[in-house]
Amino acid sequence: MEKIYDVVIIGGGPAGLAAGLYSARAKMSTLILEKDKTGGQIASTEEVANYPGSIEHATGPSLVARMVDQCKEFGAAIEKDTIKEVQVNDKIKVLVGEKATYKARAIIAAPGASPRLLGVPGEKELTGKGVSYCATCDADFFTDFEVFVVGGGDSAVEEAMFLTRFARKVTIVHRREELKAAKSIQEKAFKNPKIDFMWNSTIEEIKGDGIVEAVTFKNLVTGETTEYKADEEDGTFGIFVFVGYNPQTEIFKGILDMDAVGYFITDDNMKTNVPGVFAAGDCRVKTLRQVVTAVSDGAIAAVQAEKYIDHNFHE
């Protein structure tokens, strides 16, 4: 007889792993499906200083490894597969992957969201080594250093203002000659003495030997390129990229309610518009995308999935 899981979780980041832990501990048969490597964005984070209890110099990979071990200890299965299609109209949900087809009484979608990259030479190699996509995560590492913030929307300008608490100078690099952020946010930024602006400009290349040491800017009006090198005493500087996120929600388009960008719309209990399908983590509409909120979402989704299964299958 073909196996029907109680819960199948799409995504092996902090939200998916927390959901897996709570599901498995509740004695539900649980499968976590991850298309890449477990851990999501945190897997490439050198240091996790703002997750409660992550002392002893916890890194992203070490924290993920503990989460994975916990899930397995309580009986959750973790498989590598990419889900291509979901069928959720019937009581038993079907997930069609590249390697196999899976059946479940409930689905927790935790596919995450990935920051949009600049796509320039040196960016990937120096991510986590001076290039960052999260000021809340990494601002402290740049105390008394110079940083550049790429972007001109609300989040870019808000993160730039947050960075002024740490960095000695923050330069916002924007491809247009005016910001896209709300006027009220712009006004605060213009009044901040630590913030400079580089208009009509983009980054062409990021350079460094194991750490960011130089960056090449291009003026989109004149076509001129200039290179900025780290201050000799500093040896490095920060580049924070805020040009948007891409929620990994494509397979649910037309099935689950989403906002204009593609984030899942849920209630406080992680319920989507489809009974038995829950969403957790960076893929849903929320104000803070951090490990601490992702694991909270995952725990809530698993508890709600358990209640859904009890009500619909065990009566």
UniProtKB/TrEMBL annotation:
Keywords: Disulfide bond, FAD, Flavoprotein, NADP, Oxidoreductase, Redox-active center. It holds the Pfam family Pyr_redox_2. Its EC number is 1.8.1.9. It is an enzyme of class 1 (oxidoreductase). Its cofactor is FAD. One of its GO terms (biological process) is removal of superoxide radicals. One of its GO terms (molecular function) is thioredoxin-disulfide reductase (NADPH) activity. GO terms for cellular component: cytoplasm. It catalyses: [thioredoxin]-dithiol + NADP(+) = [thioredoxin]-disulfide + NADPH + H(+). Binds 1 FAD per subunit. Homodimer. This is Thioredoxin reductase. The lineage of its organism: Bacteria, Bacillati, Bacillota, Clostridia, Peptostreptococcales.
